[in-house]
Amino acid sequence: MERSLTMELVRVTEAAAQKSARWMGLGKKNEADEAATSAMREVFDTVDMKGVVVIGEGEMDEAPMLYIGEKLGTGYGQRLDIAVDPLEGTNIVASGGWNALAVVAIADEGCLLHAPDMYMEKIAVGKDCVGKVDINKSVLENIQAVATAKNKQIEDVVATVLNRERHQKLIQEIRDAGARIKLINDGDVAGAINTAFEHTGVDILFGSGGAPEGVLAAVALKCLGGEIQGKLLPQTDDELERCKNMGIDCGKVLYMEDLVKGDDAIFAATGVTDGELLRGVQFKADVATTHSVVMRAKTGTVRFIEGQHRLPKNH
Questions:
Q1: For all residues of the chain together, what is the average pLDDT?
Q2: Closest by alpha carbon to 297, among 196, 149, 168?
Q3: How many angstroms separate the Cα of 104 from the Cα of each of 85, 207, 267, 300, 315?
């Protein structure tokens, strides 16, 4: 892929973050999501590429834009798979919470898993623990493996889990193993990425969340040398049938190469609200300040970018 695409993707996420941040704390998650989606699409249409959304805001009849199958870009350049989450954490923004992101990932055509919109069981770790964890093993075994790989005592291991009723048994198993827990209310893309950065204090992610978000996290962790494993968890006969139609075996463990094929992919995210990894958008006078990360799997390059954007006078 063209190196210039890395900065183009940052432009996309910066625009989405700025627009959605205006809705922070106002209790209007749909309006925040729509603002992010509109801004993201507008910038995407200026990028020289032949992109197709493989993970987006839903099917064509469910979403006004950035739907699965939508074509993005000017129509010139490379053919690319695009995964988007214009606002990862709509509830977070509505409540003024922690770790909301605008997220984009791209890879060469045919390289991203077209993950159906359903639950996926996940386990994610950073570089030190690659090859050490196994989604089919017990919580205790995986925590012990992480402790050994990172030269920590089990009580020093921190697991992150979505704070959901369905995870009560999992949470108890982590506590029984002797590890500590950082519960997150939304945003398991951020939770998975945080396992790859020491300063976040997170060692491993457990639990179930959206399958599309699993692919986005996989792109980021591929760039960072980390790992995520997943299993689709269809809840209805319709979801099970959809998996069959897509040729996906629901009992199969999805590894990195299943989620993101090839040796190249690019991931970009901009903070909408403050988090462990990225600061949220700040508005001061006629300037908006953004904080983003962009990374590329082929080179292993990770860039943190602070942007200052002059605001229109009628904002």
A1: 93
A2: 196
A3: 6, 23, 6, 17, 25
What average pLDDT does this structure show over 190-218? 95
CA-to-CA distance for 181 and 202, rounded, in angstroms?
Answer: 9
Indicate whether 315 pLDDT > 80: no
pTM for the structure as a whole: 0.94
Q: What is the pLDDT of residue 2?
A: 75
What are the two backbone dihedrals, phi and then psi, of residue 200, each rounded to the nearest 5 degrees? -80, -20
